[in-house]
Amino acid sequence: MSGTLDEPVTRVVRKVFGTAASLAVVGPLPSAAVEATFARLNEIEERFSTYRPNSEICQIRDGVLSRDQAHPETQQILNHCEALAVESGGIFDAWRAGRDGRLEPAGYVKGWAIGVAGEILRDHGVQNFSLGIGGDITACGGGPGGIGWSVGVVDPRHNTTLVARVALRNAAIATSGQSERPDHLRDAATGKSARSPWLSFTVVGPDIARVDALATICFLEGRAGMQRVDQEPGYGALAMDTDGVLTATEGFRARTI
Asked: Which of 3, 30, 108, 165 is the most exposed place for a label (fewest CB within 10 A)?
């Protein structure tokens, strides 16, 4: 951000989804906006967590709650997950994504939840912010320097090293891989830990829910995933293979700084 005097940034960090949610805002940050945002994220976690036995997802997974008795939002998310399963040819299958081969919609829910939280912030008049949960980020406005929010892509082999940096303005970024949570991605066909030519797969684009889903699908899909993103207008990808070689689409390169 050379040549631009950065504006003050207010940061709020809270725990949600078993990890840190980080909100950064340029300009005024109404306390009502913060509380409404995190209250909504907590509500989503209570409904969709696979670690809380009383969540609707756990009850559906365990056969305690029928799908048609669940909250309309839960049914909506399951419908989205099933559409992604069809789109990906079964590579992304929330009904078999869990460690036990059962229901685990987190590959879609986290990105969707970040998007929902972003809408709440905008509804409260917050127009220049970034919100990240577990490394997936949505950003609105020009950031503290006016040229977008600067976000680094971490080297999956050395988590203190960056392999790229992008500027996000009304855009989002998400990464899938095995480096931070080994064995959390499952092969829907075998139920075993996913095997991929990629160490990590990062997607940028306008919609955080779509970005997050694409990152998961394309990591699981292998090298064909790069072409999938390249054909989607407004989206871009950067991936590192198991030899440490980076591959990027033009849509990703256009956002690098």
From this structure: 3
Q: How many domains are contained in the chain?
A: 1
- CATH number for the domain that contains residue 21: 3.10.520.10
Token output for 1: 């951000």
Residue 85 carries which side chain, given as an amino acid letter? A
> For 224, left (φ over 0), alpha (ψ -120 to 50), or beta?
alpha
Angstrom distance (rounded) from CA 245 to CA 163: 11
Residue 206 CB neighbour total at 10 angstroms: 14
Q: Is residue 4 part of a domain?
A: no
Three-class DSSP category at 186:
strand
- Phi and psi of 162, rounded to 5°? -100, 145
In a domain, 182, yes or no: yes
Percent share of the chain, pLDDT over 90: 88
Q: Give the span between the Cα atoms of 185 and 234, in whole angstroms.
A: 26
If you average pLDDT over residues 235-240, what whole number do you get?
A: 98
Q: How far is CA 228 from CA 31, 104, 114, in A?
A: 41, 23, 23
Q: Does residue 2 belong to any structural domain of this protein?
A: no
Q: What are the pLDDT digits (tens) for 12-41?
A: 999 999 999 999 999 999 999 999 999 999
Report the 10 Å Cβ neighbour count for 197: 16
User: What value does the mean pLDDT of the chain take?
Assistant: 92
Q: At 61, is the pLDDT very low, low, confident or very high (cuts 50, 70, 90)?
A: very high
Range of the domain at 63: 9-253
Q: Give the other-Cβ count within 10 Å of 65's Cβ.
A: 18
Distance of CA 219 to the CA centre of its chain: 13
Average confidence (pLDDT) over 104-111: 95
**How many angstroms separate the CA atoms of 192 and 177, rounded?**
15
